[in-house]
Structures are given as structure tokens and as C-alpha cells.
Amino acid sequence: MKLKNLEFLGPVFIIAGLLVSRYLFPNKITFFTEISIYTIYVMGNNILMGYMGYTSFGQPFYLSCGAYSAAIYLAYIGGNVFVAIFVAFLVGLLLSFILGPSLMRLKGSYFTLINASLCAIGVFMFERLLIDITNGNDGLWYRSNMHKTPLLDIRMPQNYFFFILIVLLAALYLYRKIDRSALGTVLKAASTNPRKMRFLGYNVFRIRWMAFTISVVFSTIAGALYSVNFGFVNPSLGENSRAIEVLLATLIGGIGTVYGPFFGALGFLGMKDFVSSFLSRWEFVVGIMTLIVLFKFNRGLWGMIQDAGSFLADTGRKFKNNSVKTAEK
Amino acid sequence: METWFTAVIYGLSTSGILFLVSLALSIGYGLMRIVNMEAMLYYSFGAYVTYSIVSMTGSFILGAIGATVIGGILGFVVETTLLRKVYHRNMMFTMVVTFSVFMIGIGVIQFIYGLDPKPLASPTSAIIRFMNVQIPLYRLIIIGLAVVAYILIQLLMNKTITGKALRAGIENRENVEGLGVNINRIFTTTFVIASAFAGLGGALNAPLVMVGPYMGFDMLLTAFITVILGGLGSIKGTMVAALILGQVVSVGGTIWAPLAFVGPFIVMFITILIRPTGLYGVKGTAFGFND
Amino acid sequence: MNQGNKLLNVEKLNVCYGKLAVVFDVSVNINAGEVVFLVGRNGAGKTTLLRTIAGFLQPASGEIEFNGKNLNKTGAYKTARMGLKYIHQDKQVFGDLTIRENLELSSYATKDYDWDPVFKMFPKLNTIIERKAGNLSGGEKQMLLIAMAMIGKPALVMLDEPTEGLAPHVIKDLAAIFKEISRTTTLFIVEQNLPLIASIADRVYCMKEGKVVNEITTREQISSMHFEQYL
Ligand SMILES: Nc1ncnc2c1ncn2[C@@H]1O[C@H](COP(=O)(O)OP(=O)(O)O)[C@@H](O)[C@H]1O
Ligand SMILES: [Mg+2]
Question: Closest ligand 1 atom, CA of C49?
Fold first, then answer.
């Protein structure tokens, strides 16, 4: 009974944790903002990887599409940040509307490679084809075009942090709802046995497409939030070589869980922050970490926390039982 | 007219390198049912080793030999220590594992050689004149070597008992073992040969591109497209696909520059839509559509 | 052939697929020169037992001894080289190779091989030797598989449901072939075909739900098909 209530408050705990940390380490505010945004990005990937069993080597593509759509809106069309984020949301819908029908029919390994190709095409597009709009490798700067927003001027980093927290809270509750809805269950079942699910009368394709849409939208929104945070975007955001980062973050957190993505983002970015202070060969570390997580640590951080939790609960129960027994004696 | 002819020859040399490099992917899948992303390391290391040897000795031929050897050695180490452990795991798992190894390799390259690309001069600047067209001899050498490699690997597959065991092993690994054949050793041998060819591909491509830590990435997708178009596990398919893609890149790029980059992807999308198993692929591979 | 020597000795063998145990404490021993059958319903664990003996699966516990050597940790290809051949249930030949190449392949692993006796046994194979093995009929495939196993002069051949799905007249031919082979080679055969068993078996092991539940040793019981109840 008690535990159930606590579970419902999970997202609130996460947000509260971020808030407290922000005041404990006031000069780390951008780091906490980044973790929050990255969590949303990892959530998008986790839907594919954890719930659907698809590994995409092209997540940076969706991220950079979101980032560029927000950036292009803010640089050329309007100044309202909320509208820019909404534009990224629409672009996400559009992408999944176009790509979903073919991608969701592919076998896993094709899915992986097609996404990797999309990623390469994305970089090519933002770097060269659309160079007149995107300034190519110089990147697109638009911070000065952003208008003041009512109530909370989110151009200020400390305010933007609060805004991100609100978005994250909403995202976490939405995610929790998806996980507990029929959609979450059906997705997991369909990833292991699509034929059976079809036999049971589910339209596996439609369900997958829906999940893919959610995943893409999470990624594009994360991209928009990311780009607005800096008031700047460049093509390196969408590079192929970064595709493994989000996979690693997802694995670190523990795949197929609601809170895994947060712990994944925390663990991954924390490690990156720590490692990059004395090592610049980032790829090397990412590769090694991924292997370690894959072979030795496959339940991830959240899995470990759950194990620890159930271990404590078990010992607690045993302790209680024991004391009851001793009392009976 | 001359432009087109040159484009076709350049395309053929691109095909040659594509063929050499893609073989490791094709065989990796055909034999071990593994999508071995790390294959591009043999290519990158091949290029770097060539660069090192050429800077030390000035001899490109030594460099190319060194690259071939390094490719083979790396292939041997990776196959015996890692790939063997993940044969039985699912495709996604092995893809992430081999991709991680690829990243680690890129890190190692950065560690040894730094981030800056290394330029390497073409070993010969000789030009062959043929009906008003000037063709660099080096391009012809690449084409020649690729043809030799193709013939060698076809002989290996069709004329030697190792090749027959290999083909049988592709069909059914267990049954070959049941005959008393040490199939692991045959797989390793073949994989090492394919990796050595990838190293050679790196050596040959080094003077044509910048030798940089990410050169493997640039090649990875094109190599994959080659293998998908050709049909996984089919060496003839890999060759035909390399021929097609070489022309798409070269002739296509002459028609409209961006095609040199986007062309292969377009080819891949079309392949997947029309014939997911590729030109010579067998049915029931991990690539294709969900049932 | 030294009749009566213990050739294969399986002691209290347990085999699992992951956590699922399918073979429990199975003991089987086969003497040189015998023709031993193994019967049991589908799913009884017969294939699992044979595959474990052949080295494709690792036993969870127990002992496998062949010719006095322990096979517990011996891989499949080494087991085959030691003269213990296993013919799969699925009758898979290498369809992409010709019959000749199939035979070459199985000669490849053994130093001591001889094609002539095999062609004497299956004259038909010699006449169609350049044909792709993939195009053969079920019966011909089984013949080729037996030929491939016999080429290296093994001491013991294990066959997994060799007559499954074959026409009656082919089964009759096979029975004759088994008789012929058994003069030089020990046979351990999983089979469902009662008349075949009755006509050539020396002994019959009966398996049920992963255990050997009966062993029939007398000719009377065999020819009266005493083991029918286990099928
Ligand atoms: N690869 C496998 N993984 C898990 N279980 C298996 C596997 N192969 C067989 N089994 C199970 O083991 C049991 C015995 O199978 P098998 O040895 O093939 O029986 P038989 O050959 O007597 O028909 C069956 O219940 C079957 O479902
Ligand atoms: Mg069976």
C-alpha cells in the first residue's frame, strides 16, 4: 500500500532530486539541465531498444532534426521559444509519419542500418545541402532572436532549468502511463513474439508505428530543448559516431524501464563529465563502457537500485518474521 | 565523352576498394551470422599502417604488405577472442558489441596518431593515355589488385577443400562438425583472409582519401550498402554490388555532385523496397522484412 | 571386430537446455558389434541424448566414455574424428555441394578413408555423383548421409530416426543396409518403425520423459514388439 504510493511519486522524487542538487552545486546548473534534456532523449531511445527490441544507430538524426527545426524557426521565422519547441514536435510527427510505415516493417538489423544511413544523410543535409540556411559547420546562432517569454523568462539559464524540469516531469508521467498501459505490455510482447500477438488480434504494425512516433517525438523535442539551451546548433550534434552514446546511456540506466533513462542519463553524463576532465579520447571510453555494461551489468543502474530495494524489503520481511517467531516462543 | 570514360575508370577503382573492404562484412555475416561493424577497423588500421611505413621507408609496396598483415592479425585477434563468444547471441547484441569494438579501435587510432588527418602521396603519378583520355596508373593498379583478390577468393571457395567445408558450414555448421571438421579453424582462416583484404583496401585507399580516425565510419555505411545490395554472404554478389556502387558514386557524382554521397543510400532504399535479400542473397536471412 | 567389448558407456547422464532439464540419470552401454535401438515418444529426449554423446551439447553431469576415453568435454568434431559419427534427424546434406563434394568433405577430416565399400553399398550414388545434393530425394539423402558417415570407417554410428518420412520400399532397403553395416560397425539407432526394430535389433532401450525406463534384451521380447507401449 505504502510502496504503491511511493511508486506513483517516482517522477516527483527525480525532479526534487534535481532541484536539490541544483542548489547544492550552484555552478553545475547547465549540467543538471543537460541531464534533464538527455533523459528525454534516452527515453525516446528506450522505447525502441527496451520496449520494441530495435537498436537504432541513428538516434542523433532525430535529435538534430528537432534541434534544427527549432533553430531554423527561431533564426528566420519567429522568436517564441514555445512555438519553436512545438515546431520540433510537429517535425517529429512528420518524420515518423513518413518513415514509420517502412521502418516498422523492417527486420532489426535493417532497421539499425537504415537509421545509421539516415544519420549520415542528416549530417550531409545540414552540413552541405542546406548550407545557405544552416551555415554548415559554422553552426546556426540565434540566441539574440529569442523573445522574452511571459511569466518565466526562459532565456535565463536558471529559469530555463525550471522550465526543463516541468517538461521532464510531464514526460516522466507520460512515460509511466505508457509503460503501464496496454501499449507498453503489447510492445514488449510483440518484440519477443510478433506472430503470436498478431494471432491474438493485435495490429502489431500499427502499435509499433505509434510507439515509433512517441520515440521520435521525444527525440526531436529533446533536440529542440538542447538547441534552445545553447541558442546554437551545428551538424556535429547528428554525427553517426555519437549514435552509440545514447545506446550506452540507455544500457547504463537499464533498458525497458520507466526510470532507467533518467539514471542512464545521469550515469552517462556524470561519467562523461568525470572522464573528459582528464581524458580526451572519448570514443575509447564509450566503447569500453558499453562492452562492460553489455557483458557484466546488463540490468543497469535502475535494475541495481530495484535489486537493492527488493533485497532490503526481503531482509526487512525476514527480520519481521523472525521477530514474530521469537515473540511466539 | 572523355569525362565519362574517366568517370567509369575512377568508378571501377572505387568498386575495387569497396569490394576489398566489404568482403569482411559479407563473410562475417555469411559464416558467423554476425553483423561485424568492427570490420572497418581493419581498413582504417591498414591505411594508418601504410602511412607509417611509407613515412619510415618510403616504400608503398611495403606499406601495403604491412597493411594486409595488420588487417589479418586484427581479424584473427577479434575473431578468436570476441566474435566467437557472441555467435550465439542475438543480432542486436552482436551489433552493439562490434560497434563498441569499432569505437574502441577509433579511440586507439586517435591515441596513436592524433586527430589530424594524415596525407599520403600516391605511389605513382604515372598517367596512361588511352584514346585521348588520361588515366592515372594507380587507379588501374587498384582495379587489377581487386580482380586478383576476387579470383583468389573464388578459387579458395570453389576449388579447395577448405572452401567446400566453408560453403557447407554456411549451410549447416553442426553437420560439418559432425563429419569431424574443425569448423572454427576454417572460419578463422577465412575471416583472417577477409580482414587482410580489408587492410589492403585501406592501404590502397589511403592516397585517395585523407587518412583520419573516422575514415572507417565513412566507409562503414558504403560497405554495408554493398553487402546488402549484393546479398549477405554471397561473394559474387558483393563483387557485382561493388561494381554498381562504384559507378553510382563516380558517374552519378559527375552528373550531379551530391549523388556521389547520397547515391549509395538511394540504391540501398530501392534494394530494400524491391528485393530485401539483395541481388544474390539467400532467403531467410536476418535482413529483410518482419514476417 | 572384437565382439562384446564395451564400446560406449554412458553413466547417469543429465542434460539441460538452460534451466530446463530434459535427460535424467540416463545410463546406456553399447558393446562392439551390437545393433542397439532407442525408442520413445516425441519429446522423450532421444535426440538430446544422442547430441550430447556426439558432443554438440555439454552434459550437466554424468560420464560418457567411448573406447575407454572420456568424452564429457570433447567437442563434436573431435568426437567424430575418434570414430563416433552421428547422423542428424533432419537429413540435411550440403545441398549447395555435389555428392562428390559431400563425400570429399567427409573424407577431409579422416586420414583413413575408403570410398569403394561405400560405393559397393550404394551403387546409385556413384552414378549420380556430380549431382547437387540438394536435389536428391529423402531416401537418397539418407543414403548419402550414411555413406558420408561410413567413409571414415567409424567404430560406432548413431542414427536419429533414419526412416522418418521415407517410403516403405526405401525403409526395406535401409533395413538391408543396416544389416550389412552391422557386420563391421556398431549401430545405435533411434527409431519408431516397429518392424524394422524387430527384424534387426540386438537390444532396445526405452525412454520416457527423459529417463530410460526399460531395457529389452531377449530376442523373443524384441520380436514380439514388447516395446510398443513406449511409442
Ligand atoms: N534447443 C532446445 N531448447 C530447449 N528445449 C529443447 C531444445 N531441443 C529440445 N528441447 C526439448 O527437450 C525435450 C526433448 O527433446 P528431444 O530430445 O528432441 O526429444 P525426441 O528426440 O525424443 O523427440 C523436448 O521437450 C523438447 O521440447
Ligand atoms: Mg528427436
Answer: 17
Identify any residues that bridge with C206 across adjacent strands, giving them in sequence order. C39, C214
Closest partner residue to C76 (CB to CB) among B168, B172, B177 is: B177
Q: Where are the domains of chain B?
A: 2-220
The candidate with the shortest Cα–Cα distance to B202, out of B52, B41, B58, is B41
Q: For C6-88+148-230, which CATH superfamily applies?
A: P-loop containing nucleotide triphosphate hydrolases (3.40.50.300)
Amino acid C151 reads I
Query: What stretch of H or E contains C56?
Result: none
For residue A151, with 0-12 CB atoms within 10 Å meaning exposed, 13-18 middle and 19 or more buried, which class applies? exposed
Q: Which residues of B touch C158 (CB under 8 A)?
A: none
Q: Half-sphere exposure (CA, 13 Å, Cβ side) for A135?
A: 13
Measured distance CA(C59)–CA(C53) in Å, rounded: 9
DSSP character at residue C221:
H
Partner-chain contact C108 B171, CB within 8 Å: no
Can you give the pLDDT of all 329 residues of chain A as single tens digits? Answer: 455 567 777 888 888 888 888 888 888 888 889 999 999 999 999 998 888 888 888 899 999 999 999 999 988 888 888 899 999 999 999 999 999 888 887 777 788 888 888 888 888 889 888 888 888 888 888 888 778 777 777 777 888 888 899 999 999 999 888 888 877 777 777 777 777 777 776 777 888 888 899 999 999 999 999 999 888 898 988 888 888 889 888 988 888 888 889 999 998 888 888 887 777 777 888 888 888 888 888 777 888 788 787 777 777 777 766 665 555 54
DSSP string, A158-203: HHHHHHHHHHHHHHHHHHHHHHHSHHHHHHHHHHH-HHHHHHTT--
**Nearest residue to A131 via CA among A241, A234, A28:** A234
CA angle A101/A104/A109 to nearest 5° reads 135
Are C and A touching by the rule of 3+ CB pairs within 8 Å?
A: no
Query: Cα–Cα distances in Å, from C231 out to A235, A283, C200, C212?
Result: 68, 60, 18, 13
Type and span of the H or E element at A144: none
Q: Would you say the CB of residue C40 lies under 6 angstroms from ligand 1?
A: yes
Element spanning C208, H or E: strand C203-208
Give the span between the Cα atoms of A212 and B75, in whole angstroms.
36
From CA B167, how far away is CA B170, in angstroms rounded?
5
Helix axes A108-124, B215-230, angle to 10 degrees: 130
**CB within 8 Å of A34: residues ≥ 6 apart:** A226, A229, A269
Compute the residue count for chain B: 291
d(CA A245, CA A59): 9
Q: Where are the domains of chain A?
A: 3-240
Match 542528416 to its residue by C-alpha cell: A122
- Structure-block grid coordinates of residue C132: 547437387
Residue (of B281, B216, B289) closest to B30 by Cα position: B281
What is the C-alpha separation between B207 and B200, in angstroms, rounded?
12
**Sheet with C69-70: strands ordered across:** C20-31, C6-17, C61-66, C69-70
pTM of this structure: 0.83
Could you give the ipTM of this predicted complex? 0.82
